[in-house]
Request: fold
Amino acid sequence: MTIEERRARIGRRPGFVLPAIYWVVIAVTLVPIVAMIAYSFNIAPNHRITFVWHGFTLAYYLHLTDLSGLWQAFLVSVVIAVLSALISLVIGLPLALALDRYRFRGRSLIWGIVFVDISAPSIVVGAASLSFFLTINLHTGFLTILLVHVAFNVAYVVVTLRSRLSGMGTVLEEAASDLGARPIPAFFTITVPLLMPGIVASFMLALTMSIDDYVITSFVAGSSTTFPLFVYGAKTGMPPQVLCFGTIIFVAGALLALANGALNRKSSF
Reply:
């Protein structure tokens, strides 16, 4: 039996292990999300989350802002997430271009720092950040949360954008240069549109990491309260509006992911 025949025979085997693992992973991932969405419409006695079904209601979606502190914490999280994602893009895009397109002294060190930033334990990053802010006498609050979120989001932006750059090549940019295009106009008319799926993906990732973060934020929050801090602080039981906000965040993220997928398919043609 030739190698080609053996490969064709193996390829025809239906198999069940990998599909089973795939569906188990999908189930483990989706079950909590489905439960969150379903129970956000559940009537909650005493206005606290319960996983006993008491009936369908839209009341908690219609009164999202009625719960003192939750709406404000959600807005703080959204503002910090958007600002940190945008600032991380502004910093991470040129850094990713430099790491991918150029060879310079310290390049390997910077690339190593990017991975250390991703792999460092959150509790270590939070404690180190708090120590730094106390050393420079910077009061903890909104600004310190934003600075820390930018610090860890930049690494994710760089890794995401560099993976896009590595498969993109420079042929179109070189062609534009040969035709007389200046570097900056060529960057915005050629490089940025080609990078747009990676830019959207890195923005979404940074947005998600920022909204989701609790450990690092808890060290540097001061008197500011983000959505995760509010949820964790509700020790007497979480109000059902928490599930509503979680559902809204998930739906918004899913829509952005679908839009990015459509953008990727469009750019591939």
About this structure: The two ends are 40 Å apart (CA to CA). DSSP finds twelve helices and no strands in the chain.
